[in-house]
């Protein structure tokens, strides 16, 4: 069980990362390739990624990365320096800048009960060539195992942020934390979560950052070293079939783009689930004013409805919008059948 004591001041300092973190996703996805957790949700991804890694000649590179970060009770913190929302280049630079003493200590912990492989030993010694190889390996693995799935990851983050924002508006910081249940619970002045070992994480006046993790499954994850800035990575929990849905939509604009334009088609496609203007902007990498303008045009065409909720506007696709996106005959989709 993981236990994080939180005071009222700690709640005021709580931070939710705006996006997943590329280094955390690299490490957590490596763990998924080493186990069978969440098989229904992630086995299609496992099959696809293993085949893609083999085609790309990255099977041995991936094996080398798993030797650095095994699926075990301990894996080194230096591989996950980010706190969400950072870029890949920035994260890799932070990894490669890890002091030699820390590299040695953390990698020695990984192999506390067995011999250290030669490649890992050179990295632990701070060998420049070994560090450069690590940087290339992280970039190559990310390009195959993580980057192709960013649209699905961004959609999951946008949906998650909608839930967290609503919880925070309704119940403040305590309501926000309660919204992470059942994986995380607020109990008698502490955050508690299932964990492989008994663990207490003292905040010591430092802000806790909650980072959404697409490849995080079963339970939240924290850094092993209490002295590092505290991070809690929580599972986003994509639904079964997420990969098939991603492949069905693809990265190209839907066919209806020929009728209403590519960006507007992507907005209408994103409204398969209700979203605020801000969530649309974040998901599609648009400015808020651009997302609002497209939503207004779609609303005037009867494809979208919009409802103001406090300082936000929630957009929903109408039955007519569903029919347009799904390629059905409008009369049938809206009226529910023939004459």
UniProtKB/TrEMBL annotation:
Segments forming domain HTH arsR-type: 258-329
InterPro entries with a match to the protein in the record: ArsR-like_HTH, HTH_ArsR_DNA-bd_dom, Metal_resp_trans_reg, WH-like_DNA-bd_sf, WH_DNA-bd_sf
Short name of any one Pfam family annotated for the protein: HTH_5
Keyword line: DNA-binding, Transcription, Transcription regulation
The UniProt record lists the keyword Transcription regulation: yes
PANTHER family, alphabetized: ARSENICAL RESISTANCE OPERON REPRESSOR ARSR-RELATED, HTH-TYPE TRANSCRIPTIONAL REGULATOR KMTR
Protein name stated in the entry: Winged helix-turn-helix transcriptional regulator
């Amino acid at each position: 069980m993981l236990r994080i004591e939180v005071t009222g001041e700690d709640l005021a300092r709580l931070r939710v990362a705006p996006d997943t973190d590329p280094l955390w996703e690299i490490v957590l996805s490596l763990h998924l390739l080493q186990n069978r957790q969440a098989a229904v949700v992630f086995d299609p991804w496992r099959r696809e990624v293993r085949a893609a890694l083999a085609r790309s000649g990255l099977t041995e590179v991936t094996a080398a990365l798993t030797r650095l970060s095994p699926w075990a009770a301990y894996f080194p913190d230096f591989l996950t320096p980010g706190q969400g929302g950072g870029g890949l280049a920035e994260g890799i630079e932070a990894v490669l800048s890890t002091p030699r003493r820390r590299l040695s200590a953390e990698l020695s912990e990984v192999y506390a009960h067995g011999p250290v492989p030669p490649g890992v030993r050179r990295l632990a010694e701070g060998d420049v060539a070994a560090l450069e190889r690590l940087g290339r390996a992280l970039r190559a693995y990310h390009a195959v195992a993580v980057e192709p799935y960013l649209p699905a990851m961004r959609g999951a983050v946008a949906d998650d942020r909608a839930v967290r924002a609503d919880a925070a508006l309704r119940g403040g910081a305590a309501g926000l934390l309660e919204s992470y249940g059942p994986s995380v619970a607020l109990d008698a002045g502490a955050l508690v979560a299932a964990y492989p070992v008994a663990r207490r994480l003292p905040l010591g006046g430092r802000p806790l950052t909650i980072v959404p993790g697409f490849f995080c499954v079963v339970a939240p994850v924290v850094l092993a070293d209490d002295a590092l800035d505290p991070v809690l990575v929580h599972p986003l929990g994509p639904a079964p079939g997420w990969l098939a849905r991603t492949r069905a939509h693809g990265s190209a604009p839907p066919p209806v783009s020929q009728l209403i334009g590519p960006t507007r088609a992507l907005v209408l496609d994103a409204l398969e689930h209700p979203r605020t203007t801000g969530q649309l902007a974040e998901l599609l990498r648009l400015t808020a004013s651009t997302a609002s303008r497209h939503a207004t045009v779609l609303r005037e065409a009867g494809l979208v409805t919009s409802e103001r909720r406090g300082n936000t506007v929630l957009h929903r696709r109408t039955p007519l919008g569903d029919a347009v996106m799904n390629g059905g005959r409008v009369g049938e989709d809206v009226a529910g059948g023939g004459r």
